[in-house]
Design brief:
Blueprint lengths: L1 H27 L1 E5 L4 E3 L10 E6 L2 E7 L2 E4 L11 E3 L8 E8 L14 E5 L6 E7 L3 E7 L9 E6 L2 E2 L6 E5 L7 E7 L4 E3 L3 E2 L12 E2 L2 E2 H55 L6 H8 L61 H12 L1
Parallel strand pairs: 1-8
Antiparallel strand pairs: 2-6, 3-4, 3-7, 4-5, 7-8, 9-10, 10-13, 11-12, 11-14, 14-15, 14-16, 17-18
Helix pairs in contact: 2-4
Length: about 350
């Protein structure tokens, strides 16, 4: 008798363990959705229009369609193949969803269906890291998730973008060892994950020759702008040097032209100031020219006397002899030659043009 009771107790205990395990497994099988999401519960079997289709949510019928007419729910909840469509799910939509299909005679059809629960939870928001100075010389970072319950949240810490081993909501470090390091936290649950902005410890002042910001603007922006200004100044200086060199070349060319024009002018002036001496016969010839009549004279024109040319006395009636050629001019002594003046200073292009025009006239 005692043996039979022991055997019955053992069997009961095994059944309880199996039921507990099965219940635990059924709880773990769940499709997690974030509030406000859309989800479709699939139908594994084929459903025709003449069949009666019913969907049950936690032992409550939410859809009942018979011969194309809806006794419960509406056609917006059913797709063409009979799947259940859920939109903008809320936490009240959590639970199990089971379909039932009957033929036109009312006999229940055997359908293939994977029984799953639907778990709707709130998504995590973007966290904020809040540092605080702790004694002695420590800094504590807290990951604020802005939620009342954090039991379903997973926490991770990143230092300079590298994952740390701590998994708690707070992180503590020595301030002097993390002076310039940045920290951020990542929070996740079954439906989404969010990462905070990076912060640095405020407990030890960081001394730097270049501040991170200047007048609310990043320092590197000022550095880039200054580099651009310097580059522009270098380009301007190069352009000015090229223009100055070109201007100097033109000025030298104008000076050469001016010296050449001055030399020609001096040569012509020297010829006008020292004309060649005329032959005595030519001088007497000029003296015999008759005077021109004054303007407005209306009397008879005076006859011009023919010029008397010397004849050869030995041959009467011969042609007049030509006047003797002008003797070659003797070289002038060095004292009579005018001393050349030094060339004038360069003048602007306009003055040079005026001087050249006056010479042509």
């Amino acid at each position: 008798m005692v043996m039979k009771m022991a055997a019955v107790s053992t069997i009961s205990l095994l059944l309880l363990c199996c039921s507990a395990i099965s219940s635990t497994d059924s709880k773990e099988v769940c499709d997690y959705l974030a509030t406000g999401a859309n989800f479709t519960v699939p139908m594994m079997s084929t459903v025709v229009e003449s069949d009666r289709l019913r969907w049950k949510h936690d032992n409550k019928y939410i859809v009942d369609r018979k011969a194309g007419e809806f006794l419960e729910g509406n056609k917006m909840l059913i797709s063409e193949n009979g799947s259940l469509k859920l939109t903008n799910v809320m936490k009240k939509n959590s639970g199990s969803y089971v379909p039932e299909v009957f033929d036109k005679d009312g006999a229940k059809k055997l359908i293939k269906f994977e029984v799953k629960g639907l778990c709707v939870i709130d998504p995590v928001l973007k966290p904020v890291v809040k540092p605080a100075c702790k004694k002695p010389a420590n800094v504590q970072f807290t990951c604020d998730v802005q939620a009342k319950q954090t039991k379903d949240h997973n926490f991770e810490w990143l230092m300079n973008g590298v994952l740390e081993k701590e998994k708690s909501q707070t992180l503590t470090r020595q301030a002097d060892q993390v002076k310039t390091d940045s920290f951020s936290c990542r929070v996740s649950n079954k439906v989404n994950s969010m990462t905070s902005a990076a912060v640095v410890q405020p407990c030890i002042e960081i001394t730097s020759f270049f501040p991170e910001t200047l007048l609310g603007i990043n320092t590197w922006i000022f550095v880039g702008a200054g580099g651009g200004v310097v580059l522009l100044l270098i380009i301007v200086v190069i352009v000015c040097c090229v223009r100055s060199k070109r201007r100097k070349r033109l000025q030298l060319k104008e000076e050469g032209e001016l010296r050449l024009a001055w030399t020609n002018d001096q040569h012509q002036h020297h010829q006008h100031n020292h004309p060649q001496e005329q032959h005595p016969h030519q001088q007497s010839h000029h003296h015999h020219h008759p005077h021109k009549q004054p303007a407005g004279h209306t009397g008879p024109r005076q006859q011009r006397s023919k010029q008397q040319h010397p004849r050869n006395p030995d041959q009467p009636g011969a042609r007049p002899l030509p006047s003797p050629r002008r003797p070659a001019q003797a070289p002038r002594p060095p004292g009579d030659i005018d001393e050349e003046q030094p060339p004038p200073l360069p003048q602007p292009r306009k003055i040079i043009k005026k001087a050249a025009k006056a010479q042509r006239v």
